[in-house]
Amino acid sequence: MDLHGMIAQHHGSIFAFLYRMTGDPALSEELQQEVFLRAMRAGERYRAVGKLSTWLFTIAANLVRDQFRRASRAPLPLEYDSTGPPAPSAEEVALAGEEVARLRQALLQLPIEYRSTLILRYYHDLSYAEIAQALGCPVGTVRSRLHNGVERLKVLMQEEVALR
Amino acid sequence: MNDQELLDLIERDRGAPLPEGPDPRWIAVRIQVELGEPHLRPETQSEVQLLVALGLLGALASLAWALYTHHTILLLIWPALLLLFTPLVLRKGVTSQ
Predict the structure, then answer these.
(1) What are the beta bridge partners of residue B95?
(2) Integer Cα distance of B43 and B41 in angstroms
(3) Which residue of B11, B12, B29, B31 to mutate against A (max A Cβ within 10 Å)?
(4) DSSP readout, A141-164?
(5) Which chain B residue has its CA at the smallest distance from A96's CA?
(6) Are B30 and A36 in contact, with CB atoms under 8 Å apart?
(7) Which chain B residues are Cβ-neighbours of A8 within 8 angstroms?
(8) CA separation for the pair B58, B6 (Å, rounded)
(9) Could B22 and A7 be called an inter-chain contact, meaning their C-beta atoms sit closer than 8 Å?
(10) Could you read off the pLDDT tens digit of each residue along chain B, which spans 97 residues?
(11) Distance between terminal CA atoms of chain B?
């Protein structure tokens, strides 16, 4: 496997996925390196499971899940937080605009499985089958997570507006 | 907020900048370090590219000059210079630490 080619082609999308999943640039950087390292160590196995990008998202999603499990404190909550999303940071607002920054914060409040499904579908254009492969779940589960995830995200966004 | 408004907002988010990730060249270097492979530091990669470009250019020039003057000894000049300078650049840039 060509390390430089793989990194050149996929570093942006993997970092973006990890950042949207964690909201933490430093952690995303650390996990991104681990994704490519694991891919290189696994060697040629990815051929058996389809597209390289989907396989890299699989590794990334597993790493984020492991990270959440390890961290009992909750910058990355496993359960739905009904208290509403925290205020976005000034840096985030400056970079992306207030409404987009609130969306990112709301995404971070979603349970991890909903969050990863929504991000892979709406930010990375993966098909239902590819998401199912990346997250190791049936296509039907992907559909229901997408539906429920969108509903939960709308509620979180409305709660955020109501709190203001 | 309805579904379409949410999807429109997501679309805007997709176009909005994210914090900058690490330089991909450094990602490669760190992974090569982890794997115990020799590698070039990113700042040295451009020096090596320059050396290769100069080497090719010089080789072509000396070939043309040698053909023009019929002095084939000139063909040896650029290989000799490359042999001299390449180890200097690589010694600076290659490390497995």
Answers:
(1) B39
(2) 6
(3) B31
(4) HHHHHHHHHHHHHHHHHHHHHHH-
(5) B16
(6) no
(7) 24
(8) 60
(9) no
(10) 788 989 999 999 999 888 888 888 888 888 888 887 766 666 666 777 777 777 778 778 877 887 788 777 767 777 777 777 777 666 665 554 4
(11) 54
B29 contact residues in A (CB cutoff 8 A): none
For testing contact with chain A, the best of B2, B5, B6, B33 (most A CBs within 10 A): B6
Within its chain, how far is the Cα of A149 from the centroid?
Answer: 13
Q: What is the pTM of this model?
A: 0.72
Percentages of chain B per state (helix, strand, coil), in multiples of 5: 75, 5, 20
Indicate the residue type of B17: P
In this prediction, the answer to ipTM > 0.85 reads no
d(CA A77, CA A71): 10
Q: CA B2, CA A24: separation in Å to the nearest integer?
A: 28
> Among all chains, which residue has been given the structure tokens 């933490």?
A24
Side-chain half-sphere of A26: how many Cα atoms within 13 Å? Answer: 0
* Chain A contact present for B27, CB below 8 A: yes
CB atoms within 10 A of CB B89: 15
Q: Which residue shows structure tokens 């409404």?
A: A99
Q: Taking every pair of C-alpha atoms in chain B, what is the biggest distance, in angstroms?
A: 81
Question: How is residue A17 written in tokens?
Answer: 């996925």
Q: Which of A136, A113, A134 is nearest to A57 (CA)?
A: A134
Q: Would an 8 Å CB–CB cutoff place A89 in contact with chain B?
A: no
pLDDT in tens, A78-107: 444 444 445 566 666 665 688 888 899 999
At position B14, the amino acid (one-letter code) is R
